[in-house]
Specification:
- The protein is mainly α.
- The chain contains five helices and two strands, in the order αααβαβα.
- A two-stranded parallel sheet has the order 1-2.
- It is flat.
- The two termini are 26 Å apart.
- The model has no long low-confidence stretch (mean pLDDT 90).
Length: 109
């Protein structure tokens, strides 16, 4: 990870949530899976495919990686159930790659 990225990761928790929302709003479909489903439906209706991201990286506990893995599975299930033209962007660091490569591998299945 580049130095700038590391600085952002460390400083971001101190930035007021309202500021983060305002800066990120144009790039984030919403805070919930239902928000993302709605936006992806709209994009698909306009002929645009989408990528759904599950936010959260650099986990520090296996339980956090497992929670994020469950969110990825929920997103994939929603994409399938709704017949959406979308995929997910999987971040291996969110699945615990830096904690335990075997944990990460097991969460990918």
């Amino acid at each position: 990870m580049r130095v700038f990225d590391r600085v952002v990761v460390r400083v971001l928790p101190a930035v007021p949530r309202a500021v983060v929302r305002r800066v990120s709003a144009p790039y984030i479909a919403g805070e919930t899976l239902d928000d993302a489903r709605h936006v992806v439906h709209e994009l698909n209706a306009a002929g645009i495919s989408a990528t759904v991201d599950v936010l959260g990286e650099e986990v520090s506990r296996p339980e956090a990686a497992e929670t994020i893995a469950a969110a990825y599975h929920d997103a994939l299930a929603a994409i399938t159930a709704d017949g959406l033209a979308a995929n997910v962007s999987v971040k291996l660091t969110a699945l615990g790659l830096h904690l335990d490569s075997q944990l990460c591998r097991s969460l990918l299945t």
